[in-house]
């Protein structure tokens, strides 16, 4: 991700103060480790990131999870989720 300032998120420290009811404990980096001022994320990198997220999500014990993100990531997320489910012989609806 990168090139455009709108693609860079604030620090997790900032978000914790803005949204105290949200649990950020699974976020590993305080700074935006994926953002670059010189290059954008490739489609392959985006697919890898969404695949990693879906795999993490499917391992969660919770039954209700809210995912908040940009529409572009959510589009890729749904496509990735469907690909992974289809690979497991399931139906994505």
UniProtKB/TrEMBL annotation:
Q: Which family does it belong to?
A: Belongs to the phosphoglycerate mutase family.
List the record's Gene Ontology CC terms alphabetically: cytoplasm
What top-level branch of life does the organism fall under? Eukaryota
> Which molecular function GO terms apply here?
phosphatase activity
Under Pfam families, the record lists:
His_Phos_1 (PF00300)
Its taxonomic placement starts with: Eukaryota, Viridiplantae, Streptophyta, Embryophyta, Marchantiophyta
The molecule here is called Uncharacterized protein
Q: Which segments does the entry list as coiled coil?
A: none
């Amino acid at each position: 991700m990168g090139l455009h300032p709108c693609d860079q998120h604030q620090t997790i420290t900032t978000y914790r103060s803005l949204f105290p009811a949200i649990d950020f404990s699974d976020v590993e980096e305080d700074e935006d480790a994926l953002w670059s001022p010189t290059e954008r994320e490739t489609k392959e990198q985006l697919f890898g990131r969404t695949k990693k997220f879906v795999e993490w999500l499917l391992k969660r014990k919770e039954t209700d999870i809210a995912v908040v993100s940009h529409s572009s990531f959510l589009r890729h997320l749904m496509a990735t989720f469907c690909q992974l489910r289809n690979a497991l012989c399931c139906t994505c609806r």
